[in-house]
Design a protein that fits this description.
The structure holds two protein chains of two kinds.
Chain A lengths: L1 H12 L10 H21 L4 E2 L1 H4 L1 E6 L7 H9 L7 E7 L2 E6 L4 H15 L6 E6 L3 H28 L2 H25 L2 E2 L1 H28 L11 H11 L1 H26 L3 H32 L3 H22 L10
Parallel strand pairs in A: 1-6
Antiparallel strand pairs in A: 2-4, 2-5, 3-4
Chain B lengths: L1 H32 L8 E2 L1 H4 L1 E10 L7 H17 L6 E5 L3 E6 L5 H8 L4 E10 L33 H9 L20 E5 L4 E11 L3 E10 L5 E11 L1 H14 L9 E5 L2 E4 L11 E5 L4 H14 L3 E11 L1 H30 L2 H27 L2 E2 L1 H30 L4 H33 L3 H31 L3 H4 L42 H9 L3 H26 L2
Parallel strand pairs in B: 1-14
Antiparallel strand pairs in B: 2-4, 2-13, 3-4, 5-7, 5-10, 6-7, 8-9, 9-12, 10-11
The chains are: A alpha+beta, B alpha+beta.
Chain lengths: ~350, ~575
């Protein structure tokens, strides 16, 4: 606690500073590599592992099973429709999932009965799920519309609030990176993309932007009286803001991850594939990526966007010049070459 | 001075919050007392078990379905599902072109077909009418006594349509029995049928199908007008037929007009049930008929809607169907709640670790947010039939973290202000001034996201978006009306004001040195290399840009600060020289 507090104090005062903004080139290269690697692995895997909602088909889940032999499930299907290929998987302790191509109503009922008898469970332990072939496309399209509407509205909102489109642009560009990387990680690991996972991705949009706004609000505060601050360049002011909110960023992501982690643990460990696991998995990845991206992508991006403004350039140059002369005055007894600037 | 003020304001805020919670509690109590609510949230299908079908409309002509047509379709599906004996089914539209049907249990094949089928509207002539109930057994004619038709029927009103079987069915049918109101979509087109009119409580034998619903061009309701154009203060329903239908309707009215009752009547059936059985009073040549009767506005509108729907060539395609057993749903609910509690406990432990006693404030705030959210969900379930889904529960659990962040932002700001040298109480107020802006602005991002998602998305996403938005609003209420007021009051206690090590705001840990310089001026806590410079003209530009981005309040504050700055420059200068 005391060490954490001291650390926080030093960050706040600028005594201790991590160079989020100054080393932007390094961070951007790392970010790009991560994205390329994630995308590459996803491509090597043959694209995303789409859930049944996006492929279309029928799915049965049998729970409270004692003997989770997949062949029982596969036989239950082939006994009804021999020509259809069925895949049964043991997705969680005592739970078997059987996926097939689209079945008709009668076939569905028959397969459900077979599964119930085959695994020796009560009727209500068998659930079925049917998804038409166009459903996934329709859902995806709605999501895309939602995404675009949200991005446009939020870009306007941020531009109005921060009174500069540059902050808004930095936030949105960073946001797109967060989503791209999270989706990439999802694809690279081969997690199944289901509607709950998509819900998770959408939450990441909201969470990541939320996180960015908190940090950007501090940047706004630090840079609003540029004329009075004669000691720090614009980059340094932005960087100071990021450092000052660092304790908060870390605390927030930990507090955000704890409940999500507990859903993930219970969802994946006890319930197997399903809404809870899929939602929490994408959010879990997204919170980490979102928090890190605010520090390493969005904040440097904003500084970068404003770097070429005439007024700021002059101001920074002046500050650096003065700093150089101060240093040479201070240290002329120690090092001679510091006065080169 | 200000602190006394702020204390009474804090107390008032807390009183208001209590009033809100108690008020919502009272409304819930009324709901429970009147049996409208059981004090628990309504559960969506994935938690309660049952069947959910997502349907999309399909037209035989391939044309797009209008929103109005969708609403009519939903209305009819609702009537059909209710008519098929399934209780508690819920039918809603989602997005522009999806209908979601949720019902407990598993629907039988017939119900499924009905839900998907297009409207089945028929016009048939009345052959004979009889009592609503079944003919008492002793009065019934024995099958052998019923006369056979004498000849092949000549037109739709010919009594020769009535076969022995039909007549026997007619005398046995009891329209008051519940099964009589079920949907029948298998009426033979070229035979006489028995049908009940529930509005007028009459039972009919009807002739063969004469006009089908797709011949209706349009239908509406309005006030009847006399030939002179004066409104007759009577509600009527207008039907307009397409050309083929108009021709047939002319034939029917020519035949029926002037016949003896009930043979001057024709029946309009939807899904095998009579929606209206008007008598023909005139020959309609142009296919524009008017049905008058004992309509009020509502019943006229309903009939017009049914006629219009009857003209729709819409059937439904099942896009997705999910059947979930009740036990599985309960399992999911149980484990979802367990996950939430574990998450909450972890957050609480972490908060105590980082903020000590203040962690208690965080935890209480989260609990109050939980109460508000719970109340809102129960009340929305009561008023708008809002149902909590598993995705919704996930949304609430995730929001624990998002809510806690409000307090983290706030507490870190207080710490920042203490690092600037302010005592705890002042730090609470200064920190709040800045934190509330950040919190509000960032929460609005979440609310915006949930509103967009809610209106665009289909299915599960909506439930999630809804709880996300709801908790964001609850969070704002809690931060403004609970967390900050409580902090203001705590600032008055010795435990916090003296910076007890367990208070989480120990000034000595925050590197605080007395920087208060008197005369109301607090010198900013700044690192060594402080430089003051004469203002340069060239910097004006970026300074102006910054000024443009300020709000009015900020600009004023900046001006005040600038005024103070110039008056205090002299204090600082000696400090510069030795650096």
């Amino acid at each position: 606690m005391s060490r954490l507090a001291t650390w926080g104090n030093e960050l706040y005062a600028g005594k201790k500073s991590y160079q989020f903004v100054q080393k932007w080139k390094t961070w951007f290269v790392v970010a790009l590599i991560l994205l390329v690697v994630a995308g590459g692995i996803t491509a090597l895997r043959g694209g995303f592992n789409l859930g049944i909602e996006f492929r279309g088909g029928s799915e049965f889940t049998v729970s409270a099973v004692e003997n989770t032999d997949p062949s029982i499930g596969e036989q239950a299907v082939t006994a009804v429709v021999p020509e259809v290929e069925a895949t049964a998987t043991n997705i969680a302790p005592g739970t078997v999932r059987v996926q097939t191509a689209e079945l008709s109503d009668d076939q569905t009922l028959q397969v459900a009965t077979n599964l119930q008898e085959g695994y020796g469970v009560a009727q209500e332990q068998v659930t079925s799920n049917f998804v038409g072939p166009t459903w996934g496309a329709a859902v995806s399209q709605q999501m895309l519309i939602g995404l675009i509407v949200f991005l446009v509205l939020v870009a306007l909102y941020l531009a109005i609030y921060f009174r500069t489109w540059k902050m808004s642009a930095a936030a949105i560009v960073g946001l797109m990176y967060v989503v791209a990387l999270t989706v990439g990680i999802y694809g690279a690991i081969g997690f199944e993309v289901t509607p709950p996972a998509i819900i998770g991705f959408l939450l990441i949009l909201s969470y990541s932007l939320y996180d960015t706004v908190v940090v950007f609000d501090k940047i706004r505060e630090n840079t609003q009286n540029l004329e009075e601050d004669r000691r720090r360049t614009f980059d340094e002011l932005v960087n100071l803001a990021v450092n000052q909110t660092l304790v908060r960023s870390i605390t927030t992501s930990i507090v955000g991850i704890l409940p999500v982690g507990s859903i993930l643990f219970i969802g994946a460990g006890l319930l197997g594939a399903g809404t809870l696991r899929d939602i929490s998995l994408s959010i879990f990845v997204g919170i980490i990526v979102g928090t890190v991206a605010t520090l390493f992508i969005q904040a440097p991006l904003y500084a970068l966007f404003r770097r070429n403004e005439e007024g700021l350039k002059d101001r920074d140059a002046k500050i650096l010049r003065r700093r150089g002369s101060l240093e040479s005055k201070d240290e002329n007894s120690v090092t001679a070459d510091a006065s080169n600037t | 001075m200000a602190s006394k003020n702020s204390q009474s304001r804090a107390r008032r805020a807390l009183a208001w919050l209590t009033a809100i919670i108690v008020g919502l509690g009272v409304i819930m109590g009324i709901g429970i007392a009147t049996n409208n609510s059981n004090g628990l949230p309504l559960l969506a299908l994935d938690l309660e078990g049952g069947t959910q079908m997502v349907l999309s409309p399909e037209t035989t002509t391939g044309e797009a379905v209008t929103a109005e047509q969708m609403n009519q379709a939903v209305e009819i599906i609702r009537q059909r599902v209710d008519g098929s004996g399934v209780s508690e089914a819920e039918i809603n539209t989602q997005g522009d072109d999806n209908v979601v049907v949720s019902m407990p249990g598993t629907p039988d094949a017939q119900t499924r077909e009905l839900i998907q089928a297009s409207a089945n509207m028929e016009f048939r002539s009345v052959l004979t009418a009889g009592s609503f109930q079944a003919t008492p057994e002793e009065e019934r004619l024995d099958v052998s006594e019923i006369p056979e038709p004498e000849a092949t029927p000549e037109n739709g009103s010919d009594p020769n349509w009535i076969t022995t079987e039909v007549y026997d069915e007619f005398q046995r049918t009891d329209c008051a029995a519940p099964e009589a109101s079920q949907i029948r979509d298998d009426l033979p087109a070229d035979e006489a049928v028995v049908a009940c009119d529930f509005d007028t409580q009459v039972k009919y034998i009807l002739g063969p199908l004469e006009i089908s619903g797709d011949q209706i061009e349009s239908a509406d309701h309005g006030m009847a007008s006399t030939p002179t154009g004066v409104s007759a203060n009577q509600w009527v329903v207008n039907i307009r037929f397409e050309s083929e239908g108009a021709e047939k309707f002319r034939e029917i009215t020519q035949r029926l007009t002037g016949m003896t009752s009930p043979q001057d009547q024709f029946a309009i059936l939807l899904d095998g049930q009579i929606v209206s059985a008007p008598a023909s009073q005139a020959v309609i040549l142009d296919g524009q008929a008017q049905i008058s009767g004992n309509f009020d506005e509502e019943s006229a509108a309903q009939l017009a809607e049914q006629l219009q729907y009857g003209s729709l060539p819409i059937s439904f395609e099942v896009e997705s169907e999910q059947q979930i057993s009740a036990t599985l749903g309960q399992d999911q609910l149980f484990w979802g709640l367990v996950a939430g509690l574990i998450g909450l406990a972890l957050v609480a432990v972490y908060q105590f670790f980082q903020y000590r006693a203040l962690g208690l404030v965080t935890l209480t705030s989260i609990l109050i947010m939980g109460i508000l959210t719970y109340q809102a969900i129960v009340l929305l379930g009561w008023s708008d039939n809002y149902r909590l889904s598993l995705a919704g529960i996930a949304g609430i659990i995730v929001s624990i973290g998002l809510t806690a962040d409000s307090f983290i932002v706030y507490f870190e700001r207080i710490k920042d202000e203490m690092r600037n040298g302010r005592p705890f109480e002042a730090a609470v107020n200064y920190g709040w001034d800045r934190a509330k802006r950040t919190i509000t602005v960032s929460k609005l991002v979440n609310i915006l996201a949930s509103v967009v998602l809610f209106f665009v998305a289909v299915g599960n996403v909506r439930g999630f978006a809804f709880t996300l938005g709801l908790t964001s609003i609850a969070d704002l209420i809690v931060v403004y009306m609970f967390t900050h007021p409580v902090m203001q009051l705590l600032a008055k206690t010795r435990f916090f004001a003296s910076g007890h090590p367990m208070s989480g705001m120990d000034p000595s840990l925050l590197g605080q040195k007395p920087l208060y310089q008197g005369a109301g001026r607090i010198r900013e806590f700044r690192p060594e290399e402080e430089v003051v410079e004469v203002r340069s003209k060239k910097n004006k530009r970026s300074g102006k840009e910054a000024a443009r981005r300020q709000t009015i309040a900020e600009r004023r504050a900046a001006e005040r600060a600038a005024a103070l700055q110039s008056s205090s420059t002299s204090d600082r200068e000696p400090a510069q020289e030795d650096s």
